[in-house]
Write a structure and sequence with these properties.
α1 packs antiparallel against α2 and α2 crosses α3. The protein has one domain. It contains four helices and no strands. By secondary structure, it is an all-alpha fold.
């Protein structure tokens, strides 16, 4: 065990991010790298801050709220916009929603 008590929160957030990037990272292909890195830093910082001030229980509450938000977006909001919340199809609508150019430029 580490002597720093918040390693667990960082490990959970980074683990979720690693799996999410491997499995669903292709949906963020046009998001700038600084924004993706910034999102990880913000979530790690928020997790440690919450755990340090309110306790680890509230860290898990935060994770539950984030999961609920993701489910709400993918199961309700995206389908209302005509986009499949699991596959992101039709791609043209997904790109328009994100403000990206369709068809994507080949790099």
């Amino acid at each position: 065990m580490s002597s720093w008590p918040y390693w667990f929160e960082i490990a959970v957030i980074c683990g979720i991010t690693a799996v999410g990037t491997i499995v669903w990272g292709h949906w963020e292909e046009h998001t700038p790298k600084w924004r993706r890195i910034g999102k990880i830093a913000v979530f790690c910082g928020l997790s440690v801050l919450l755990s340090a001030t309110a306790g680890r229980f509230w860290f898990f509450v935060l994770l539950g709220v984030l999961v609920a938000i993701v489910l709400l977006i993918h199961a309700w909001w995206l389908p209302r916009k005509g986009i499949n919340g699991w596959t992101g199809e039709p791609r043209e609508k997904y790109y328009a929603l994100r403000g990206w150019k369709w068809p994507p430029e080949i790099r």
